[in-house]
Amino acid sequence: MLVFTLPEIAKEFRTSKENVYILEQLGLIKTTKYSSRKLVSKYEVKRFLIENAGKDFSTLISEEKKRKKIKDMSDNVVNFKQEGK
Fold this sequence. Notes:
The model has no long low-confidence stretch (mean pLDDT about 90). The protein has four helices and three strands. It is about 60% helix and about 15% strand. A hairpin with a 2-residue loop joins β2 and β3 (about 35-40).
């Protein structure tokens, strides 16, 4: 296979799709957008694995999930305040 979708990479890496999307959003996995799908070449997957061998992304991913949750909560508060006007 020459290209993978992000969910396919998640399956290959045995992790959640959310974790792979976070790695992509942080620029650690580079994608190519084709139509409405984000694709990753097998060469990019290989590059990512080689350059990051031995690294632990659990803290980085955990912190990004917390940041996203705080942003979502903040957005909800802003929307609630706007609806109350």
